[in-house]
Amino acid sequence: xxxxxxxxxxxxxxxxxxxxxxxxxxxxxxxxxxxxxxxxxxxxxxxxxxxxxxxxxxxxxxxxxxxxxxxxxx
Length: 74
Description:
Distance between the termini: 35 Å
Largest sheet: 3 strands, antiparallel
Radius of gyration: 14 Å
Strand order of the largest sheet: 1-3-2
Strand content: 25-35%
Shape: globular
């Protein structure tokens, strides 16, 4: 039986800096709440709002997700 999340998103991996591993941070939920969290994290100095992906559709109707990729030294 095929898993419901399998192959749902096939995002191209961005070119990663040499010797670094990508770490993905996801925020999922209703669009207004997701945007609010992204902006709150910006105000806290965690990440610029523009560093996050645009809102992507979620498997849950009416919800979206945004992704931030950071790189960790391997």
